[in-house]
Every structure is written in C-alpha cells, then in structure tokens.
Amino acid sequence: MNRQDTQSVVLVGVGGQGILLASEIVAQTAMKAGYDVKTNEVHGMAQRGGSVIAQIRYGSQVNSPLVAKGTARVLGALERIEALRYADYLTPGGLVVVNSQAITPVTVSMGAATYPDNAEDMLQDQFENLIYFDAAQKAIELGNIRVANVVLLGVLSTGLDLPAETWRKSIATCVKSTYQELNLKAFEEGRNMAA
Amino acid sequence: MKEGKQRLRQLLSGNEAIARGAYEAGITVAAGYPGTPSTEILENAVLYRDAIYCEWSPNEKVAFEMAAAASCAGARSIVTMKHVGLNVAADPLMTLSYIGVEGGMVICVADDPGMHSSQNEQDTRQYARFAKIPIFEPSDSQEAKDFVKIGITVSETYKTPVILRSTTRISHSRSIVEFEGRQENPKPIGLEKNPPRFVPIPIWGRKMRKKVEERLQQLSQAAAQSPANRIEWRDRQLRIVTSGIAYQYAREVWPDASILKLGFSYPYPNRLIREFADGANSLLVIEELDDILEQHIKALGIACIGRDYFPGIGELSVTVLQESRARLEGKEFCGMSSPKYIDCLPARPPVLCPGCPHRGIFSALGKHDVVVTGDIGCYSLGTFKPLNRMDIILCMGGGISMAHGLDKAGEKKKIVGIVGDSTFFHSGITGLLNIVYNKGCSTIIVVDNRSTAMTGHQEHPGTGLTLMGEKTTAVSIEQIGKACGIERVHTIDPYNVKETQRIIKQELESEKPSLIVSRAVCPLRARRKVGAIRRIENEKCRACGACLKLGCPAIDGSKEKPEINEYLCYGCGLCEQMCPFKAITDTEETTS
Ligand code: SF4
Ligand code: SF4
Question: Strand pairing partners for B238?
C-alpha cells in the first residue's frame, strides 16, 4: 500500500465565487481517472461572503479529507489576497494559480482594515511557481463572469497528472447542459494560457 | 434506482450517504429541522420520496417525537438535527430510551467541532451515555451509509433508538460509496395496545428502568462483536484507540500503529478494549472533543495517554496530531507557522449578502439607543460592524424570551427582540405568549425572509410548501401574534427605509408589546435581483460615507469615493435611500 502518492489540491476564494463547483470538477476528474478521492467543503455561515476553502485529495488510498499544512501540490485562488491567506497549505515549490481579481472585504470598506496595494509583489515573493492573471476578465470575454472558476481550473489542471479528456468529461457532467459549451471553452482557454 | 450486477459507486458527502443509507435500510419516515452540518441529509432523503416520507418539522423535539411514534408503531425512522438540536429534543430522547421502539430508529446528530457554523461545541457521545442508548461514529461516507443500516438492525434487535454521530468533516466531506439495494421492513405497521409497554407512568416506568440497564449489558457484548468495531494489527509497540474522523487523521500521522477503531463506541465494547490493550507498551486514545473514551479506559484500570497530548477544544486534523506526535516524542514541531503575509491581510468574515432584507432593519435600529436581543440565523451577522445592532444571542427562540427577561430586570433602555421566521415557528411562539401573559412591553421584530436561509433556504410552516414539494397552508405570523394576545401587530417592507423607521420609532415609544413582521423574500432564495442595479455618480458623491454604514459587500469603500460592484449589487435600493446627496441612482440595465 502506497500512501505517499496522495495528491492534494486546495481551492480558495470568497463565498459565492463558485468554489464548490470547481472542487466538484476536480474530485470527479480524479475519480473518473480511477483514484480514491476525498474532498472537504465549507457550508453554512462561512459561505455568506466570507473567505472559503475547498480541499481535494486523491491517490490509491486516501485517509484524511483535509489537506495537511505544507502538502498541497496546487493552490488555486479565485481572489488575489486569498492565496496569501492559505499559503501555508502549499508544498514548497507547488503550483499557485491566482485570479488577479480583488474583492474588497467589508472590513476594508468600513475602514477597519486595509487592502494591500502591493498584493502582486507579495504573491511573487511568497510563491516560486506562480501564475497570476485576470480570470474574471477572461470569463467576461467568454460571455459570463461566473466561469472564472473554470478558467482558473484550466490553468491549474496543468499542474496535476490527470488526463485532459477526463477533465472535459467531468466538466460536462458537473454543469447544466445549457452551460456546458461555455464551461468547456473556459477550461480550454485556461489550459491554453498555461501551455 | 436500478441495481445492476456491478454496484454503482458514487462520490457522496457524508450527508448524502446517510440519506442513501436510510433508503437502503428500508426507512419509511424521516423528519428533522435544518441545522449545519446536518441539513443535507433530509434534502437528499427526499430524493427517495416514493419510498420515504420526509418532513421538516417546526423544531427538533417535534421531529423526534413524530419519528419516535412511527418507530413505536413498527416503522423504520430517522430523525436529523445538529448537535444543539438534540438539546431541544432531549426530553423525548431520555424517555424514549425507556419505552424503546419496535421498528428501527436512527437519531442522526451532526456535531460541529471547531464551531464552523454553531454557537457552541457539544459532544453528542455524552447524550448516548446520558440516555443509555447505543451510538455509532462513521469515519467516512461509506461508513455513514453502512452505519445507518447496522444502526437499524441493532435498534430493532434491542428495541432501542440509536444515535448516529456525524461531525462537520464527515457530513461535508465527500468520499466514494458503493450502492446496494433497499431492504424493506417486514413489520406490519400499527401501535400495539399494550400500555405497560408504551406508558412510562411510575409503576411501569420503574420496570422499564431496569430493562434499560440489562439492555446496556447486552449491547456492550454486541458492540464487542459488531462489524462496526475492528482491531487493525500493525506494529504492536504503538496502539491507538480512536473513532470517527479522528481515525483518518491517526492513520496518516501514525501509519504503522495498531488501531482499535470504534464505530459502535457506546455501550463500551469492554472485551474488545481489553483484548486490544493487553500487553501494550503505549496506548494512545485519540478522540474529537470530550475525553469520554479515555476516562472510561482509565476506569477499566488501563493506562493510556489522551487529553494531555490531544486537544479537546476545536477540531483535530493531521496537522494538530503531527504537533501532538512531536510533543509525545519530545521533538520540535515547526509545521504550525502561519503564512508570511497573514498580518497584512484584511479579515474577511461572513457578512449579510448584498440585497439582504435584514440590512434595512439593522440600519433602522441603528438610529435608536436600544438593547437588541438576537437569535440564530443569517441575521446573527447583524452583530458585526458597521451594522453592530445585536447585543446578545443565546439559542433558537431566545431572542424573544430574553427581551422579556431584560424588561423585567429593569433594563433602562428600550428592548427589541429579533427573530427569524423559521426560528419564530421553531421556538419563538411560547416566548411571545409569555410577554403577553406576564405583561411585558418589548418590541419583537420577526425578520421574515420566507425561508430558513442560513442553512440553505429550507421550507417551514410559513412558506406554504412542504419538504416533499407539496402545497400546504402557509401559517400567518401576524395571526399567531394576534392569537397570542399581541394587539400591536405591523407588517413592513424592510427595503422601504422611511416606513421602516417610522414604524420602529412608533413601536419603541409604545408602552404595549408589539410584533413587527418585516417581510421580504431572501433574494438568494428567490434567485433574482430585488430591483435595478445601482451606481454611484462620482461627481455628485461627497464621500460622506452614509452608504457605507450599511455594510453592503457590493459597495467598495476602499477608494477615495465609494463604488458599487455591478456584479455583486442586488438592487435593493437601500443605499440610494441612505445617500443625502442623491448620488446613487438606477443603472439603465435591469435584472439579468
Ligand atoms: S442597491 Fe446598494 S445596498 Fe442594495 S445591494 Fe446594491 S449596492 Fe448594496
Ligand atoms: S452616501 Fe452618497 S454621498 Fe455619501 S458616500 Fe455614499 S454615495 Fe457618496
């Protein structure tokens, strides 16, 4: 039994950005690729605009559904500073994909905190292996800001050893048929960007 | 659902798996009250509506009692709730233990170690011991499903209700589950006419009391042989007793250790524990929350290590256990350091959504120097700045009763009690009755968003729909208020700032108790914008900050002048009414 082969993925963002769907797609892809899979997602109060995290682990046999600090092979962030908040989950040298979109927390709007204006510098400093781009803008160009999560997944998928065809299949099963084409396009867009 | 030769395998959350287990176990009655992390169990059980009758009851006690009666009549039942819900249902729990059941009954309770979405941490295993009934603790989704079925068998064999204890990380983690077919309940349904069996008046209750004790002895034997409990022998030098999700963490941190994995953890399988501990050099007991197993094992005269190294506050994780392991081995642990820039990051707590109708009420209350007693629901978020309009929260329904308590204690300020619609039906009505009966004068506001919103928008007695999707009587909160004897009952639209402020002011000045029903459907539930998306005209804005006092996440106040994020705005219009310079207007485009 080889437990060392377990791969961990962490997705973070702000409640309502589509983290749950992205997590579902990663999990289904790993399962279709023949792995044991466990995931964990946050429900309830934290989903109300708070900072959220989803964790996915796959391998020949997975025990904990939670990712241990310092072990995630990829970290995907749908909001720029959220990547910094969960940086400790990443394994040294792991791939980090960040949507450059900034969402101002209410704590900043009411003057109780400040939003760092040099977030990109911090990201560059913190992560060796960083892809930083405007996934929201790409999604808007594709026709709907809501697919920013799948654009991000497209980029992130290049850091994992799961076949491209399996990703496409699970996207097709995870989204409503009316949005299938759009989501598949979003995925390709992300994948091409990373290439 | 068709059952082919090859069994269907699916990635299910613990809650989905429990629902599947209910189906496979031949359960025909399911009831509960929504509560994170338990809610999705019934939402998934209802997918089997042809086989299982499902309902949201007004509260956990009612749900428990209806399921208990169903099982007394021979049906198989499940009742679901979060940990604090079992406090509400504790009364029937304690006596159902005496009466027992005929058809199997699973009481599914989801604990929330770490308080992700709860007001306290409770270890439901204490209730199993308290009520003297069995408890099952799954470690993943497959076991969550299997333990419902084992639970039903144990329940019917020993005529006792059983508890299935989930936790947040079981309920909301997904793992692969193999499907099996449904086993129908062979029992005919009908309550046997046998008062000594079902009526616990003292003369019969005392006999039941003795039987409960005998049953415990038998169940301890049964637990020792149950497939839910197992010893995994690996390195015999290090042995670990564990249960639930903690098993998974222990496997990762001590991959070579021998493990006694307890899925049927109470009544304690003493024989198995002794067998496992026999000749052990070192025995670790790893459990989430209370040190129940550890205390018991010590009471058996077996030396073990537990709470001294494994924390009892908050949830466990691989990282937490790695830290414990380092301490046990006298090593340095550096895996807990926080991210480099964490101190430069603004906090991002949960907030009321853009367009949330509760915002109108809290904003209006902000104009008065009152004490606000709050309750459990999305509106708890009104506690945070900048709204900052909730002063105390205790439990479901507590907002109403506590307002009265402050009133009678002689609180100098005017008192406002806030309660949600679902919470009002859950346990607010008796508090309201008390205010009238005992001549209180609080102002009670029901923030009625036509759903149980925090847990994901479930139906309740006021919505006119059942969990099964059938139309039903929509019970009127106003009429209940009047029937309780409240004379001053008002209904307001919380998006209408002037009217809301006028009514609140008027009722605060009144010496009589009043009930204000603030009615607007939660836009997240309605899945539509409230109105046209708003925009701030930069030239007209004087940066006075009035709109920012709403704490709307769609208004970005990080720049010199505030800006509205068109993708986040729900068009409720509150900010437009706040702006003294008429700088906020409709955008042309309407809803998407
Ligand atoms: S109209 Fe104003 S207060 Fe309402 S959601 Fe939009 S920005 Fe927020
Ligand atoms: S209330 Fe009006 S003037 Fe004041 S900051 Fe907001 S938009 Fe500008």
Answer: B282
